[in-house]
Structure formats: C-alpha cells, structure tokens
C-alpha cells in the first residue's frame, strides 16, 4: 500500500488547507494564494515610493517662495534717454510645512510657462531655472513701449534640461506674504512692471542674495 503523505489536502498542501480534518478549506486557500500573488507588485511599488521619498520631497509638498524682488524703473516721459524697466525675482523651492528639504541638493528643474511666448527664453513659451531649486526671473519688456500682458505658471521636474512635456512634471504655486498664486498675471510697460498688481512681492527681501 502506497502511503500518501498529503492526502489531507488533496495532495496539494501549498494551495489547500484542512484545519478541521474533515474538509479542504478552499476559501482560506484562495485567500492565501491571493495575498501571495499580490505581494510582489505591492512590494515593488512600495520600494520605489520609499526610495523616491528618501532622496527627494513629494512635489505636492513644495511651493516656490520669492526671496528677492528688485525693480529698476525706467525714466519718466520727456527725458532724452529712456531705459526699459527691469525686474528681477528670485524664487526658492521650499516645503509647505516649513521643514527643511529631505535633500537640499536634489536637482529639481524649475520651468516657467508664459502665455505670451515672446517673453520666454526657452522653447514652447518656457524658461528653465538657473540653479538647483531656484528660479531667477529677469523681466524686461524690451519688445515695445506698448503695455505687454502675460500669464505665468511654474512646473518642477526631476529631469534636467529644457522643459519636455514627456518628462515627469509637477505644477507648483507661488507662496508669498500677499497670498498663494497658481497663476501670475504680468503687466509691463516702458515705465514699470507689475505682477498680480504688485510692484514688489510682500514679505520678501529687497536685495538679491
């Protein structure tokens, strides 16, 4: 007589259980199998998320904060030599909760997007930041003496180089003492430059760092 060691589980002890000794518990078996099958996928996504969180901040936890805002006005009408106004705003990427960045040296690429593409330096109405986590916005309406208007938004990406819609891109707002702005409205003429109605952002230093 051949002795069958796993007859209690219908010769399949991996997928079947028989806790009562009377009947194979298929429901429990399927539950265990389902958990085991799901583990590799859950584990992979969890590891990827954990690695990203360890080396960089969640982009949803970040915003741009203007650290310097300087405006040099053009000369009044009637002067023999008129110069265009120029405004320089330096933005820094910070956490919304005020805590330090997980990795201050992580290379976030900051890009601005202009509805008036003539005011952007890069392709497709965009310009990219000059340093990691920073964006230095040099605004000078040199196109004409007529008023110029544009709407500006920002995105950040872990990929370097010019903005590419195929990359991982995340929208970021601008946070200031005057409020949080998803879109910046620029109005420029030969005399002054206003952003969301401000000649200078509230709550920012006046000198460049």
Question: What can you see in these coordinates?
Answer:
With 209 residues, the protein is α+β, with helices and mostly antiparallel strands. It folds into two domains: 7-55, no CATH class; 63-195, no CATH class. The chain is built from one helix and eleven strands. Strands 3, 4, 6, 7, 10 and 11 form a six-stranded antiparallel beta sheet that branches. The chain has a three-stranded antiparallel beta sheet with strand order 1-2-5, with no helix packed on it. A two-stranded antiparallel ribbon has the order 8-9. It is globular and about 50 Å long. It starts with 25 loop residues before the first helix and ends in a 14-residue tail after the last strand. 20% of the residues are buried.
Query: In sequence order, what are the helices and strands, one letter per element?
Result: HEEEEEEEEEEE
Question: How many DSSP H or I helices?
Answer: 1
**Can you count the beta strands?**
11
Taking all residues together, what is the mean pLDDT? 76
Gyration radius, rounded? 29 Å
The amount of beta strand, in percent, is 25-35%
**How many strands, which pairing sense, and closed or not: the largest β-sheet?**
6 strands, antiparallel
Unreliable parts? 24-30
Tell me the count of domains.
Answer: 2
Helix content: 10-25%
Helix/sheet category: alpha+beta
Shape: globular
Query: What is the terminal separation in angstroms?
Result: 90 Å
Map the helices and strands.
Blueprint: H1 26-55, E1 62-72, E2 86-95, E3 109-114, E4 126-128, E5 134-139, E6 148-157, E7 170-172, E8 174-176, E9 179-181, E10 184-188, E11 193-195
Antiparallel strand pairs: 1-2, 2-5, 3-4, 3-6, 6-7, 6-10, 8-9, 10-11
């Amino acid at each position: 007589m051949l002795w069958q060691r796993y007859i209690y589980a219908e010769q399949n002890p991996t997928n079947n259980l028989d806790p009562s000794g009377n009947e194979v518990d298929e429901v429990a078996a399927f539950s265990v199998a389902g958990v085991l099958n799901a583990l590799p996928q859950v584990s992979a996504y969890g590891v990827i998320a954990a690695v990203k969180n360890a080396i960089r901040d969640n982009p949803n936890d970040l915003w741009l904060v203007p650290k310097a805002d300087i405006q040099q006005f053009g000369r009044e009408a009637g002067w023999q030599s008129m110069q265009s106004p120029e405004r320089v705003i330096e933005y820094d990427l910070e956490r919304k909760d005020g805590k330090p960045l997980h990795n201050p040296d992580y290379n976030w690429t900051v890009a601005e997007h202009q509805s008036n593409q003539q005011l952007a330096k890069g392709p497709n109405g965009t310009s990219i930041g000059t340093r990691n986590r920073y964006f230095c916005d040099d605004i000078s309406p040199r196109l004409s003496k007529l008023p110029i208007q544009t709407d500006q938004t920002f995105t950040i990406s872990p990929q370097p180089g010019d903005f590419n819609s195929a990359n991982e891109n995340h929208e970021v707002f601008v946070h200031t003492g005057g409020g949080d702005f998803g879109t910046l409205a620029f109005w420029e003429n030969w005399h002054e430059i206003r952003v969301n109605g401000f000649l200078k952002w509230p709550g920012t230093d006046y000198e460049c760092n």
